[in-house]
UniProtKB/TrEMBL annotation:
InterPro entries: IolE/XylAMocC-like (IPR050312), Xyl_isomerase-like_sf (IPR036237), Xyl_isomerase-like_TIM-brl (IPR013022). Keywords: Carbohydrate metabolism, Isomerase. The keyword Electron transport does not apply. Coiled coil: none annotated. The keyword Oxidoreductase does not apply. This is Sugar phosphate isomerase/epimerase. One of its GO terms (molecular function) is isomerase activity. It comes from the Bacteria.
């Protein structure tokens, strides 16, 4: 094994953003910002900046670097920097989705393109299977898939370290938080961190509050959405919704992140439809990280979801299969941002900000 060296926005009178005036940033993560799906990337970024977002995360920079003119990309990066905002790029999958050497070369090329724009913050996701999979002539069980991810990330270390860049492994729906931490703990903490996607944790049967508290010291990027958890015959079905409109306890989640110096809170919005089949005995064979209290919290969220349906606050499960319109997506982003702003203003006013930890 290769040795890795350790070393929302409110609808009321939004003013164009010029420079951060708070101790935190509210970010937007997108491929195209809602309402600008048919316009050039730079126009969508301009719209997000005008609406007050102070951090911009592009979902798929590999795609952008192939399909968007480099002049436009550089112009977009300048727009973000000149506004006082920050740029974070999605590098793509750390594996194992294809032959490892090819994946590493593609990630290295994408990282080089991002560094050319002056970006130093990145996140990566994963595409593992809980069971053994075949890649070409090789078969990989889940530990072998994790090992391949570790080596892929490690291959990016020299360039990232030399550039002062940080690479964050996202808590994707295919990995438990323990597995993400297992990988990151074997890498250089000056370069590698964790990208916390809170809503993904329930897919692996985990308690978002407990996991956030455990991972917060290593969290360097956030990908935030709320969720509802519907009881179904096989267990639970997750659906995503604006922050503050679901069943996640945001006071505890945001409080844990804030206490560890996280100051950038980024809204992600996608469909992401997954089940957590806790009624299937065989499912537990590939989930050794689970604890009874995790399952208890899933049950609590499912009960809370049922109460929201019965109270007429959210529609029944069948209605969640409809895709939101562009207008609805924009409204959902605005609702999340408005909720975050209120919550973070409250945190900011009741705690002493440690400036040495800010910016995460």
């Amino acid at each position: 094994m290769t040795q890795i060296t350790h070393h929302g926005v409110d609808a009321s009178s939004i003013q164009p953003h010029r420079a951060p005036t708070t101790s935190y940033r509210i970010g937007a993560q997108f491929t195209r910002f809602p309402g600008t799906e048919t316009t050039p990337l730079r126009q969508g970024i301009a719209t997000a900046l005008e609406q007050g977002y102070t951090s911009i995360t592009l979902n798929n920079f590999a795609l952008e670097s192939r399909d968007t003119d480099v002049v436009e990309l550089r112009g977009a990066a300048r727009d973000i920097a000149s506004s006082g905002s920050e740029l974070l790029l999605g590098l793509g999958s750390a594996g194992p989705v294809q032959e490892a050497r090819t994946a590493r070369a593609e990630l290295a090329a994408t990282l080089a393109a991002g560094l050319d724009l002056g970006c130093t913050e990145y996140f990566l996701h994963t595409r593992t299977e809980r069971t053994t999979v075949r890649h070409g002539e090789r078969t990989l069980d889940h530990p072998a898939q994790l090992s391949q991810i570790l080596h892929t990330l490690g291959s990016l270390h020299p360039v990232a370290a030399a550039a002062g860049a940080r690479l964050n492994l996202k808590t994707h729906e295919d990995l438990s938080s323990a597995e993400v931490k297992q990988v990151i703990d074997r890498l250089d903490p000056e370069v590698f961190g964790i990208g916390l996607d809170v809503a993904n944790l329930v897919v692996r049967g985990e308690d978002p509050v407990k996991v956030t508290r455990a991972l917060a010291p290593q969290v360097r990027s956030t990908h935030l959405e709320d969720l509802v958890l519907f009881p179904i015959d096989t267990g639970y079905r997750r659906r995503l919704c604006p922050i503050g409109q679901g069943v996640l306890p945001w006071d505890e989640i945001l409080g844990s992140l804030w206490a560890q110096g996280v100051r950038t809170f980024t809204i992600e919005q996608h469909r992401g439809r997954f089940d957590t089949p806790v009624h299937n005995r065989a499912w537990f064979e590939n989930e050794p990280h689970l604890h009874p209290d995790d399952l208890g919290q899933l049950a609590r969220m499912a009960r809370a979801t049922t109460a929201l349906v019965e109270g007429g606050q959210i529609p029944e499960l069948e209605r969640w299969n409809d895709d939101p319109s562009a207008t609805e997506r924009a409204e959902q982003f605005a609702a999340s941002a408005a909720y975050l702003r209120r919550a973070l203003q409250n945190l900011s006013s009741t705690t002493v900000d440690d400036s040495t930890q800010s910016g995460r």
